[in-house]
Design a protein that fits this description.
Blueprint lengths: L3 H11 L3 E3 L6 E2 H18 L3 E5 L5 H11 L4 E3 L6 H11 L2 E5 L1 H7 L5 E5 H6 L18 E6 L9 E5 H11 L20 H13 L3
Parallel strand pairs: 3-4, 3-5, 5-6
Antiparallel strand pairs: 1-2, 7-8
């Protein structure tokens, strides 16, 4: 199992539908799949063990999430609202990593050994300079898809492990493939470091909802 199955099915089943953004300038599912493949090449050649996202929701979120699963790297969305010391500590725990960041977080994480930072917009702009990776990914359901750091009130944040099998099984058993109308859209306001945001994104992609 791999969440890339969900995106591949969406791209094959309704590739011309808009996946992200507004109806006129947004990315279609085919375009999203292409950009994910290019991101996968970036991650594979980076030498990093994890793909980190430190910033607000944007097209970089699904591109980085699926791209990391394409090449078998755990995706680590960090809570960009944390105080600087805690955010740096979590980034250090995820090293060596390739970190897609908003500007403030990029300046904060760039000095950390083993963390390759890149600004969110630069990451998106540079995708076209890479060839898409070969459409091959692992199918071991035990592989880690996402590491979500908890933000409890006591003690250090702990990493909750979401495996490929957990995410794929949840979507396949709760969402109808192509179940959404072409005119349906969802406004997701949950931050990328929250499991509800991840679930909403995966559900919408599998259902064909913008």
């Amino acid at each position: 199992m791999n969440i890339m199955m969900l995106l591949e099915m969406a791209s094959s089943g309704f590739g011309d539908r808009v996946a992200l953004g507004d109806r006129t300038t947004g990315l279609t599912y085919t375009q999203l799949f292409d950009r994910v493949g290019r991101a996968a090449t970036t991650f594979a050649t980076s030498g990093a063990d994890h793909v980190v996202l430190a910033g607000e929701s944007s097209p970089a979120l699904p591109i980085a999430l699926f791209g990391s699963s394409w090449v078998g790297r755990p995706f680590v969305p960090l809570n960009y609202r944390l105080d600087s010391a805690t955010l740096v500590s979590l980034a250090e725990r995820a090293a060596p990593s390739y970190a897609v960041c908003d500007l403030v977080q990029e300046a904060l994480l760039a000095p950390i050994d083993g963390v390759q930072t890149i600004g969110r917009q630069t990451f998106l702009d540079q995708l076209d300079s890479h060839e898409p990776a070969a459409p091959e990914w692992g199918f071991d359901g035990e592989d880690t898809a996402i590491l979500l750091f908890t933000s409890g009130t006591t003690g250090e944040p702990k990493a909750a492990v979401l495996r490929q099998k957990h995410l794929v099984s949840y979507i396949l058993t709760s969402v109808e493939f192509m179940g959404a109308g072409e005119d349906e859209a969802t406004l997701v306001s949950v931050p990328p470091y929250h499991v509800a945001g991840i679930a909403a994104m995966l559900s919408s992609i599998y259902a064909g909802r913008r």
